[in-house]
Amino acid sequence: MGVGDISLTAAMRSNLASLQQTSTFMARTQERLSTFKKVNSALDNPGSYFTARANNQRADLLNGLKDNIGQAIQTIKSADNTVKGITTLIENLRAQINSARTARTQTGSAALMRGVASGMAQLYKQIDNLRRDAGYNGVSLLSSGVAMKINFNENATTSLKFSGFAGTLSGLGLITSGASMGTGNQVVSGATAGEIATALYTEFKVGYVDVDGTTKTATINFSSATFTGTAGDTRLERLESSLNLALSRLQKESSTLAANLSILTARETFITDTVNTLVEGANKLTAADTNEEGANMLLLQTRQSLGVTSLSLASQSAQSILRLF
What we know:
Elements: H1 10-35, H2 46-103, H3 109-133, E1 147-151, E2 159-163, E3 196-201, E4 206-211, E5 218-220, E6 227-228, H4 233-286, H5 290-323
Antiparallel strand pairs: 1-2, 3-4, 3-6, 4-5
Helix pairs in contact: 1-5, 2-3, 2-4
GO cellular component, one term: bacterial-type flagellum
Organism: Sulfuritortus calidifontis
Main location: secreted
């Protein structure tokens, strides 16, 4: 039925228009209260809507970058923990060398040397095991083949690049070959015929040298091994020197890890603050004041009730005219 099909009095039409407007305002206010936003579409306020959307989109991108930074931080922490573990084992190796120096001058030192060498072999093995077990999500910075790039902004124009390092025994400068120990005679005090001295070799196993008290000759009892003796001050000094070199390299890598960790942590904090700023700015453009909207709703409900009453009164006025007939 068209609007013109029914003739309304001027008062009734005015009240009806007022009720329709009130209903529209109530629907808008209800939407704002339910979404907590005063700008829900470009129709509400184009400038605020598109600016807020751009801020929120950038905040989402930065949050994704922050997640990547967080994972990189964990990777570095894992590497640093491994470096600390290897450092502890190498320091224990240095203590074993001091024990070897003491043992080789004592009577019956062959048995003592065997124990020292066995302990050193186990420490070597555990150093390599630590390196093999290192890593976070399959990435280990104790491998020279690892390279990482962490972007700091959505355009990838700022980033941090870092790579892993050779965390193998040889990569750290540790002696793993008898050739590195040099050659020469080794003397074990108090050795008797048939007594056994212990040696280290590349595969981290323990082999034995038979000392023939008659011929004064020694024979290595394993067929495929690289001899690394534990006797002889010169060789012990070379072994100790390699341990010091390894500690120096680990200290250098630890400093690099700490520097990268500091950069990533600072960037993570910066991105968090930037995201908060962007979201806060977007909210200031679009967020509704719930107290104000609640008051508006009460006022509109009151206005609606008054409008209905006014429309009813206008209708009664028309009915009173009919009574005249």
